[in-house]
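User: Please look over both lines:
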Amino acid sequence: MDVAAKLTSKGQVTLPKPVRDALGLDTGDEILFRVHKGRAILAKIPSLLDLAGSVPVPPEVKGKPWSKIRSEAWKKATERHR
């Protein structure tokens, strides 16, 4: 998709609605600009809530409180260095 927009005297640009819609952008979303070989690449930065559930939880820790998971991991790590 190619959509044009104008740069203001303050260096601002309004993202056209088709671009906002295509990227799923909403008010308050953060955007990343990456410049590569003379071109800008634009992407939505996902929030932590957007990432929820994207990492599988190992069955051995599913349902355990975070404090217990952390203490068990610390214990295992310290045992390896004895």
User: Anything to note?
Assistant: The mean pLDDT is 89.
